[in-house]
Design brief:
Length: 295
């Protein structure tokens, strides 16, 4: 259903009051349509979902869908650590005509594996929209294990899993055991190439915010089995894969997209602007990727 380079889109904000900048959001959508991204994830964790209120969250999804106008799939981040809230967000996103929803493992409250199964099953049963699960234990302090993923793969509208563990052994295990029932995507740019060569269907990417054409080309080559071309392109992106995590995501990537001239510099507390000592490493990585800096 979905494949290739799927950008985990930043949410642009205005300087001064940190309100959502809808004009810049439209520019970002056009940028990704023009540069070959295969899907847009609106209001995922890279989109600062944790600090947007319900109305802002829905507004960003609505305007992303409107700007995309059917030219590129839109996947809405609708996860929460409250099952009721996740259902409400997912239901609203479905009403706004998204192509799918992305649901992160509940954070902070650390449910059991049975709790994870029941959480995601409840959302899938409540809202018929296609759903992609998202396991990122480094952020959530809760790891959804392969047997739980296997159980959830039996639910018809759970169509994919974003695996952001960066563990290629885990990736192989998931692809072998769940790949026939749901698609497995990388959520870790540094290992995305290897993940796809193992049979993963694409990458939900931070790097694609900055170098969308190269990420799309790399993913296309990897999915086509053109390993040499994929590795050659990925080599130019290696600096971005690393430098965009010099501070907590999305701090570096928002700074980089600002330097492309696409958005303002604002980021919402408790996140703070990129520390000055990291400016040159990110600039150097952008230059290595062939990205033209406007600022």
């Amino acid at each position: 259903m979905f494949q290739g380079s799927m950008v985990a889109l930043v949410t642009p904000m205005r300087d001064g009051d940190d309100s959502v900048d809808l004009a810049a959001l439209k520019r970002l959508v056009e940028f990704h349509v023009d540069n070959g991204s295969n899907a847009i994830i609106a209001v995922g964790t890279t989109g600062e979902s944790a600090t947007l209120d319900f109305e802002e969250h829905c507004m960003v999804v609505e305007h992303t869908v409107q700007s995309a106008a059917g030219r590129i799939p839109v996947i809405a981040g609708t996860g929460a650590n409250s099952t009721r809230e996740a259902i409400e967000l997912t239901r609203k996103a479905a009403e706004l005509k998204v192509d799918a929803c992305l649901l992160v493992v509940p954070y902070y409250n650390k449910p059991t594996q049975e709790g994870l199964y029941r959480h995601f099953r409840a959302i899938a049963e409540a809202v018929a929209v296609p759903q992609i699960l998202y396991n990122v234990p480094g952020r959530t302090a809760c790891d959804m294990l392969t047997p739980t993923c296997q159980r959830l793969a039996q639910i018809d509208n759970i169509v994919g899993l974003k695996d952001a563990t960066g563990d290629l052994g885990r990736a192989r295990e998931l692809i072998d055991s769940c790949g026939g029932k749901m698609d497995i995507f990388s959520g870790d740019d540094a290992t995305a190439l290897e993940h796809m060569l193992l049979g993963g269907r694409g990458d939900i990417s931070v790097t694609a915010n900055v170098a969308p054409r190269a990420m799309a080309d790399m993913c296309a080559a990897a999915l086509a089995g053109e390993e040499g071309r994929a590795r050659s392109t990925d080599a130019t992106l290696r600096g971005l894969h690393d430098s965009l995590f010099l501070e907590s995501n999305p701090i570096p990537v928002k700074w980089a997209v600002h330097k492309l001239g696409l958005i303002g510099p604002a980021i919402r507390l408790p996140m703070t602007p990129l520390s000055r000592q990291y400016h040159e490493p990110v600039r150097a990585a952008m230059r290595q990727a062939g990205v033209h800096l406007e600022q």
